[in-house]
Amino acid sequence: MAKFEFGFEEAWFRLILKKLPDNPDLFLPKAVEKAQSLLRVGKLKVGAARAWAESAGIVCKKKGGFQLTPLGHIIAHHDPDLEEDGIWWLFHYNLAKATSPAWFYSFYCNEFSPDTFSRDDFEKAVRGHWNNSHDKPMTDSVFHKLIFPPLKQVFEGTRLGDEFGFWLTDDDGNYLRQTENAPSLPKAILAYALLDWAIEQQRRSVHLEKLMEAGGVGRIFRLERDYFDRLLVDIGEYYQKQVAWISHTAGLNSISIMDCPPLAMVSTFYYELDGEEPMNALAIGKKEVDTIIGRETMPLLFS
User: Fold this and answer.
1) C-alpha dihedral over 167, 36, 97, 141, to 10 degrees?
2) What is the pLDDT of residues 135-149, one digit of tens each?
3) Residue ranges covered by each domain of the chain
4) Average pLDDT for the chain
5) CATH number among 2.40.50, 1.10.1040, 3.40.50, 1.10.10, domain 2-86
C-alpha cells in the first residue's frame, strides 16, 4: 500500500504517456533518478506515479520494464496532453471500479454515501470497511498516511475534484460531492464502461437497477436513473445495437451488452470528436484497436 502514499497530478500522466515509450526502464528501481527528471517529481513520488498509472489502465509491466497498455497507446496517439474531459471520465471509472487496485478510491465512489462529510466521517467509514475484511484493525498510520492524503491529493491535483465535483470544500472545512455541473459523460465512454463491466462480470445482460448498485456503472458515474436510461437508449440508437441497448418490454429495463472490444469505444470517442458519425467512428475504432492488439503482445484489458 505504500505505493499510494501520494496522489497524482494530471501532468504526471501526460509525461508518462510521452516519455514511457522511449524509456521502458522508467519505473525500474535502477532508473529512479531518470524518472525523477523526466516526470519532474521527487524520488518517493515515482512509485506513486507508477501505481496510479497502472490503476488508471495506461501502464503495464513487461519483461524487463514497463510499457503503455493498448489504452495508453490510443490516448497517446489521439490526446497526449489529456485535454478531453471524456478521458478523465474513463480514468475515473477505472480507478473506481470494484477491481481497482486503488481500493480506497473505489470505496469512496461506491460504498461511501454522504455527499457532505468531515475527515472524521470518512475515517470512521473507511476503518469500518477495512475492519470487515481484515484480521487486524486499520492502524492510524495507514489512514493518516496511505489513504486520506493520497485520495485528497488525487482530487485536488486533477479536474476530477473541482471541475467534476467529486471533492469540494466548503467554508466550514467540510468536504462535498456536487457532480450536477460536471462535464457531460460521453456516450462512447459510458459504452466502454458497460463493455468492460460485462467482461469482468462475465455477463451479456443486466437489469438497469443492478448497475445502480455499488460497483455498477451508474453508481460510479453518479447517474440519475432516468438520465442513465436515456443514455442507454441513445447508445442503442447511435451504434445500432452493436454495442449495448436497453429493452423496456414488460418493465424489465434489461440491458443487452454486445461482444464489442471496450477499447474500440475509446477510439470511437476520439473519432466522433473529429466529426465522424457514430457508426463510422465505431468501424474505424475497431480497426484501430485490431491494429494495436496485433502490433503489441499485451492483453486487450489491463489486469
Assistant:
1) -70
2) 999 999 999 999 999
3) 2-86, 88-176, 187-295
4) 94
5) 1.10.10
